[in-house]
Amino acid sequence: MKPFISLQNVEPLIYDSPFRAPLNWEMNEGEVWSIIGRNGSGKSFFAKVLAGEYNLRQGKITYSFDRDNFGDEKSENVSPPKAVKIITFNSVFSVTDFKGSYYQQRFNSTENELSPLVSDLFPENVQLELKPVFDILNIEKIWSRRLMQLSSGELRKLLIAKALKDQPRLLVLDHPFSGLDETSRRQLDEFFYALKGNGLQLIFIVPSRTEIPMCTTNVLQLKNGQIAFSGNISSFSDNSQSLTKEPLTIDWQIFPASITDSNEEVVNMNDIEISYGNRIINSHINWHIRKGEKWALLGPNGSGKSTLLSYIFADHPQAYSKDLRLFGRKRGTGESIWDIKKRIGFTSSEMHLYYRQNVSCLKVIASGFFDTIGLFRQCSEEQMNVADYLMNLLQIGHLKERSFLNISSGEQRLVLFARALVKNPELLILDEPFHGLDDENKNRCLQMVTSYCSQKDKTLIFVTHQKEEIPTNIEHYLMLN
Q1: Domains of the chain and CATH, by start
Q2: What is the sign, positive or negative, of the torsion defined by CA atoms of 79, 42, 200, 190?
Q3: Closest CA to 311 of 272, 338, 345
Q4: Of 259, 375, 377, 402, whose CB neighbour count within 10 A is largest?
Q5: Reduced to 3 states, what is the DSSP secondary structure of residue 220?
Q6: Where in 277-320 does DSSP place strands (E)?
Q7: Residue range 408-431, pLDDT digits in tens
Q8: 3-class secondary structure, 62
């Protein structure tokens, strides 16, 4: 078989590099690889090495499709091969100017008008050329929508279509199924199989074996900063992610006392409509949540789940015009958004996308006490101790002083998960909290959710596309069509 990419004793110049040994690896033409490993094992860094995004301290990277092979003395003058495209969670920032945007902006009709339409990204000649891709990914369904209004799952499919527009030789997809509903996952899995060959090589970055696409032929496993396995998928046995069997014990007494009152009503929605401008996404939603109830909110991509949650978390200005009561009080009767937020712990894919503050992970978690994106107030010693305690429970204590922007996306998920729990809120809203987590971390977070729910009068809203992720103490379901 003809080599496609070859790494020979490669040692990239990366600050605080996750790699403890030189990298030696080869990918042949026609092969489809999945890179697997725990959160923080260096999977995304490895992909960037393949794309030539780092200079090399030593070694050589050889590309059969590009003359700009580099290594050793030539490395400082080489730009990344144009034929390599990487799609990551944050790739949306390369599509348009999202960096100046903020999370709530997608719900504000007067401000998201500045966001481009999906159709603006594809010239007419490209539209015809990519029609089979658009059909499979349902791009035409969001054709007239603004980028700012897309769900995380819809953005993921759009990024894939846009990457194919540039006709790359190598497409690297980081967590390809994140944010996608069951139907979209199946369609995309079949789509990857159809893409296989035709001069396009595929590499997937996944946190666990259950996330490996079916077209994969070979597996590269990273462990403890080194390549632990490299070979055919039929020979791969992943015994590194055996789940922790010991139950996780959490001392909730050390957390600040959460707000409580005698009102039994947490959420009361009557005949709620979800819309963007003149476009109605969903309507006639009636949802009544009482104190202590545990709910799962389900539905396909684009059904309005995140928007519905934004009404509850006081992020959506349309909430004032709805027949909506929160904690026994009708919206718009004098309460501030901070009065609502202080009773709620919240995390979501959208919040992850817009949390671009270059602060330490410990401060990101502590910002949950004040419901801010970034920490702008002085925390008490008790509050910082709680944030520190959560990091140790999640086994990410080594990230305390690391910048949030310089850790892996999976580690960022863990930090934002801890941020949602840090004030032990009256209502906990978790919107796809386990995206990108390896099996060990997913199990640990699930135990923490279960422990939270065991407390008296705690209310939970849990959103997921994966039924196996739903906590066992969920007793109520709302399905959006």
Answers
A1: 3-235 (3.40.50.300), 252-479 (3.40.50.300)
A2: negative
A3: 272
A4: 375
A5: strand
A6: 279-290, 294-298
A7: 889 999 999 999 999 999 999 999
A8: strand
